[in-house]
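name: query_chain
kind: protein
chains: 1
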Amino acid sequence: MSLKFVVMQEGLLTPAIAATVTRLTSHVLDMPLRARDLDLDEWLAKPNPAKWSKLEILGHLVDSAINNLKRFTDVQYLPQPYRITPYQQDDLVTINAYQQLPFDHILQMWIALNQQILYVIANLPADKLSHQVIIPNGEVKTLGWWIDDYADHMEHHLRQIFYPKT
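structure:
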């Protein structure tokens, strides 16, 4: 995937969503390169037994992508407002056993899912961005807001992986 993909589709998007697509595209291109700079021990190390390792954080981002891909598609055809249901993130990290899976397997899932999310977002008709969503805390937002929040969530966890607090 390349940034050319985003430019080709940009005319269909609002400026705000085009900026979010550019952010996400940058992460999908850059993160795998940066990820290779960390050795496996760094990916597997847990700051303490109750915290996720970097590999589990990446697995959580896979779970986030799975759930949000479905949300980004469902909101386009289901009755409005669309209710976003939370998912059990700790349970999913445990059940999917990300700590025991090969790094490359998790990384490839993250890349593929986010590429698909980018395709879905880049082809969204602009009028669907204003579709209302009810987020888990009960607030009413728009699909455009939710897409931007997805990018913010990803960036939060990428900072945890690459710039952990010492």
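note: The chain is about 60% helix and 5% strand.
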